[in-house]
Every structure is written in C-alpha cells, then in structure tokens.
Amino acid sequence: MMNTKLDTLMTKIAELTEQANAIRNSEVTTVIEDIKTKMNDYGIDITDLQFGSPGETNAEGERTVHRRRKPETKYMDAASGKAWTGRGKLPVWMKEAISQGKTKEDFLVEGIFVGDKTAETQAKPELQVTADGKLIRTRRKPEAKYMDANTGKAWSGRGKTPTWLKSALNEGKTMDQFAVA
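^ that's the sequence the OP posted. Answer follows.
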C-alpha cells in the first residue's frame, strides 16, 4: 500500500517542475528575441560576439583574435643547433653538457631579456655549498611595493595581506597611501 501523502507530494513536484520548465522556456525565448533585435538594431554580427577583450581592433577596424606567442629560445647549443626555451624539464643535451662541466649560462642566447636587463648583464643569484657538498641557491628578496613610513614595515604585494596593512585599511586608509614610489 502506497503512502497517499507521498503520492500527492510527488505529483505536485512533477507539476511544479513542468510549470518551472515552461516559464524558463518562455523567458529564454523572450531573451533570445531581445538579443536578436538588439543585434539587428546595432548591426552586430555573430562574429562580433567573440568573448575576448572588448574593443581591441586591428587597422581595418576588425576585432582581433589573440593567439599565444611561441616562447623565445633562451638557451642554445651553437654546435648542434639544439635550443630550449627554459621552460619545462632540462633537455638531455643540456644535462649531458652540464655533466661535462658546462653551466646553463654557457648556452644563454645573447640579447634575451630577463626582467628589465639582458641575460648576460643580469646579476645571478649567489651560489652556496653546504658542508656535504650540496648546492644551495639563494633567492633575492622581493622588493617592497607597500611600506608604512611610521613603523618601517613593508610588503612586496605577494601572498596574504599583512596584519598591519589590514588594520590600516580598516581605519580608512588606502593602498595608495602605502605605495612605494
């Protein structure tokens, strides 16, 4: 024997679902007609509806489509002509050369820009060796982008916002007031 309350509720659910679908379908139809009308009014073509950056056009006034640039070669073996962008795993040819005593810097392509300096003029991080002979690379400390002149506390803009800055922002100050010139 079935529960009559449950049957009644299931019937109501089915009816309400049907009503909701009918309302949605009529609203979708109305929205589509509205979009079509506006496209006709403004002379918008379906090709204009590319979801890239708005307003970017080429010399002819056509919208531009952005394509990813192929990464530039950063390292090259002049003898073999083999190249590497510096992304991903170290290539076998470079591993072999390093095992023979060369360094990655020996293969740097001249004129490659790294940051705001060319690769051959950029300062390299200092190398340190532990007591057991392991190589340690030290990273440069990121420059401060925000600083509290009163306390001298600084933040590079990376990671979580520090407590001192959060409390200053809650007091009504702005990020611009702490920006390092």
